[in-house]
Amino acid sequence: MIECQIEVFLNIFTVDDDKIKILLLKKEGSSTWHLPSRLLKIDESLESSATKICNKFQLKADMLKECHTFSEVNRNKERRTIAVSYMLMINKYSLKNYEFEYQLFDINNIPKMAFDHGSIIAQAVACLKKELLNLNNLKVFFPADFTFPELQKVYEEVLNENIDRRNFRKKFLPFVYETGEKNELPSGGRPAKLYRFLDKDLERNLFNVIK
Amino acid sequence: MIECQIEVFLNIFTVDDDKIKILLLKKEGSSTWHLPSRLLKIDESLESSATKICNKFQLKADMLKECHTFSEVNRNKERRTIAVSYMLMINKYSLKNYEFEYQLFDINNIPKMAFDHGSIIAQAVACLKKELLNLNNLKVFFPADFTFPELQKVYEEVLNENIDRRNFRKKFLPFVYETGEKNELPSGGRPAKLYRFLDKDLERNLFNVIK
DNA sequence: ACTCCTTTGCGTTATTCTTACACAACTATT
DNA sequence: AATAGTTGTGTAAGAATAACGCAAAGGAGT
Question: What's the gap between Cα A187 and its chain centre?
């Protein structure tokens, strides 16, 4: 029997401007950034606590995934605190209630974080990259019209290697359809066609890797 | 700030008699089986607590993997109890201190378990199967001489499908070498050659699946 | 209009991997 | 010696992958 507090952290990931981003919060008066979090109450489970964070942003909590627990004895000097970290993949359009103190950050450009939030994010990012190898999860990031170059950039970041543009297209073609529309803001270069994912369920790894 | 107890569970998996097995404990006077476990103390982390369970069996704790937390409010009626589940893959020869009240069970034939230990095992087994797709993890189960039929049986259970014997062999041949010895107890049929894994590191998925 | 530059779309080829088999080799049993 | 059960080896068709060349569509500058 121990007396402690249990923190629940939520890593909210999305794709914005061709980059994988995470939602962070700057608390008033603090110089560092924070992950959205909540203290577990005696009458709730970790999952329901994480769900309440989702509710705050009006996000569906049905794809919540537990990442890791952080329990080093001294991670909080004042009192024994154990943290459980969750992640959620969303598309950026589903982010409501997105107030001024919240901001999306490129996962490769995380600002100075409070306490050990930086390592919690690092762990969650590793977890995210595994999940994104499953096409069913990747779909969450691209619910509406997307172009092949956009999709490829995310995959290249996940796999951490460059992929041939033409071979990449061939791999994904069986799972998408053209909308007929084209990209609007090319800033030079040929406009890209817009695609959407088909509804088929796909439990297949398109790239033969395990991470 | 809540007062609760935190349980650490350890799912110890091994391969024995061509089956994936888990180490369970029957406590004196109890009619049900238990997972090896430990209550978290105020001055230790979850990892170090799980390591202490490993020590009891003289098992190296360097491959401990966190599986899941179980935090339903009523999972223990008497007091608020949160469980964190770990898993460890070992080869059966490394199991010392293996006393009479402990027993290995086929993961497809789990006995009647105490409390929610059954669902903790189910979750850990799912976790294990993912891990075994990584050949580096599979090696732990087959440290010494093994035959192709033995290896294949484990893979068929993980993938939950039958694999062609000859194609399976071709896939794994680049990663093993013959010892020159042959299987001793064939009970009829041609004796199988014995193999060992090469030392190469392999972060590749030999079967194109995500689970 | 024309050229240059950039980006996207499409196709071709050689190579590798996968799949589905047939058949021989080895052992124990009868 | 014949049979049954199991393992080892080969081969050929088909699919997937990797490495390219090149055309098409737009913007910017002249």
Answer: 28
